[in-house]
Amino acid sequence: MTSFAAWARAAQERTEAALARCLPAAAIAPQRLHEAMRYAALGGGKRVRPMLAYAAGEAVEAPAGRVEAAACAVELIHVYSLTHDDLPAMDDDDLRRGKPTCHVQYDEATALLVGDALQGLAFEVLAEPGLHPDPAVQLEMLHLLARAAGSRGMCGGQAVDLAATGRRLELAELEFMHIHKTGALIRASVLLGALAAGALAPEARERLEHYAKCVGLAFQVMDDVLDAEASTATLGKTAGKDAAQGKATYLTLMPAREARAYAQELVEDALGAATGFGERGGRLADIARFIVQRSY
Fold first, then answer.
1. How far does CA 91 lie from the centroid of its chain?
2. CA gap 26, 17 in Å, rounded
């Protein structure tokens, strides 16, 4: 088996190529919008969500082409959310993935349209006629992604985050926020990659759901730790923004050492779920370990 570093690099390159193919060319009208969409989506990022889709696909032996479409769709939703989150009305950031944010490079109106267009493109990719031989499963995939992106998923979590700025949340409230804001799309990434194979057996779905919940929370815990401890150059985005803006984070509830230990506990739980797939679940386990070991 190839190393995780080599596998991750291949998954990132495959995602980049798939995104480059599905995004409209910059020369196509409206040129400025299409150029900005490509600027936001290409050339950066860990691509954790596509990697999760590929890993879940491997766990259930899903066809690679269908998994690629799922990986592309979740990354398009993710980039749309980042583009909107960075706007002055939200988190007001000027650096993302090591380069100026979309609204800084272009303008706020263009950044709004970029996010809207990327969201629409994600569903276009997943709704491609004939993508899945079972129309009912393809419809389930679309429903899953729509729910993850909406008010009962990512958007709802962002609303809770904005409302909580400046006040202390209890652990249960914080985890409710992150299960929606970050966890919903991570869950969708895992399930979409697996659904590319077809309808899931209840036991397999339960394992994947549990894995995704644990990994999603661990990812956010480490994000909070890294925001406080890592440099802007390492992160590729402005470090220390959470504390400066009075955001509710895990570090407002516990020291960084305890937060890291909590993330490790979550990952150990996720690893237990991944072992249910035997050797085929190896990449799911690798990604869980990467989440707590990463430096950016």
1. 17
2. 15
Model pTM score: 0.95
What would the two tokens of residue 82 be?
């980042």
Q: How far apart are the first and last CA of the chain?
A: 26
The reply to whether CATH 1.10.600.10 applies to domain 4-293 is yes
Geometric angle at alpha carbon 243, from 240 and 249, rounded to 5°: 105
**What pLDDT does 154 receive?**
96
Express each pLDDT in 241-267 by its tens digit: 777 777 888 998 899 999 999 999 999
Q: Please state the domain extents for the chain.
A: 4-293
Which residues, in sequence order, are bridge partners of residue 95? 100
Q: Two tokens at 42?
A: 């290409």
Q: Report CA-CA distances (Å) from 115 to 34, 37, 43, 85, 250.
A: 11, 8, 17, 10, 28
Q: Which two tokens stand for residue 33?
A: 């919008």
Buried b (16+ CB within 10 A) or exposed e, 161-196: beebeeeebeeeebbbbbbbbbbbbbbbbbbbbbbb
